[in-house]
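Journal club prep — side note

Before the paper discussion, L.F. wants everyone to see what a predicted structure for a comparable chain looks like in token form. Sequence:
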Amino acid sequence: MPQGLPRRLRYAFFLQVLLASLVVVVGVVASSRIVKDVLTSQQLRSEAGEFWNGRARDPAYPLPRSSTIHGWFVARGGDDAAVPAELRRHGNGISTLPGGQRKLIVEERPQGRLYLVMSFAVLDGVIRRAGLVSMLLALLAVHLTSWLTYRTSKRLVTPVNWLARQVARWDPADPDMRSIEPGRVPGDGGSEVQQLSGALRGLGKRTQEVLERERDFTRDASHELRTPLTVIRVATDMMLADADVPERTQRTLARMQRAGRDMEAIIDAFLILARERGRAPLTEDFTVAEVVGEEVEKVRPLLAHKPVELEVVATASPRLHASPRVLAVMLGQLLDNACIFTERGRIEVRIEADRVVVADTGVGMAPEVLRKAWDPFYRANLVNPTGKGMGLSIVRRLGERSGWPVVLDSLPGRGTTATVVFARNLIS
């Protein structure tokens, strides 16, 4: 059976059988000893009582003699030399003799002292056999009852476990609710399992509707935002082309253009992420160096007034069959972060055989900040409040969607290194 609830159920029944068997064995052994002790003591007292009653009627009444009982009687004032020495040491009452297979009862009355020794080896064998039979029957009953109960419980748990496996296979973006229709549920789960199946189908349907509304809203809002951004970009381009525009105004227009490009990159990322799984963006064959070169030129104005060197180092020329826009958005966000948080030093973009590395000598991040860096809207640096805290979150999600994992390595005061690994879509 699979892991989880069925396995725990099996272990629970195994433990139950083990404990019950232990209780049965201990109980039968203890009860056998108690029964043997009670029976032998009663038999000795009965034989002694019968002897004293007989002596009261007939002074010559004989001592009990059989294969299991032997007796000695010492009249008052008489010599007890005939009594074995090991018996003379015992006082009145019932005692167990060495070896554990014989019992002694000593009773003293006005007529004299009575010694009766009973051997219960035969009785012990009978009790042992009876105890063994009782133990076997009890163990058989425990095992049979537990097995039947386990089979019944298994039939009840199987539908729940099956439902759990089916739901675990669901794609969150497109749950296959037909897989848990009532007719497909195995076993006899009863009305409760049917209710659970219905609740899971309802949950899957509601989740699907929520995701669909989210995708529609993101797609529609992103498309609507493109129009005003295009107008702003065209207007700023025209104003920057005007030679009569003052230098101060040109700097303001340049900032507006950069902000517009950032917003367009975020909108592109939203549009890509809003696509349904299985519907990838338009793909083509392209070289990574082309995309890197374009994105590097876009961020150079951010370093215009900083003593920072931005360099591209290519040790290989990888080609991809994917969406160049996705890679451009990812690299643009990483380069933006490197430019914002590097006040002096160097930013290096390395193109290797299966990855792109963006390394800077900026402020870096402490381990606790690095752990939260992927969280949406998380901003640790308040000195540069221009960021929205969404860049790295978008990069991570785009990387997961494209099969390009992103790795961050950072130390405070030493800078940050971001690596995009092309785990898929690489053209050899």
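L.F.'s comment for the group: The domain at 280-427 is CATH 3.30.565.10 (Heat Shock Protein 90). Keep this in mind when we get to the figures.
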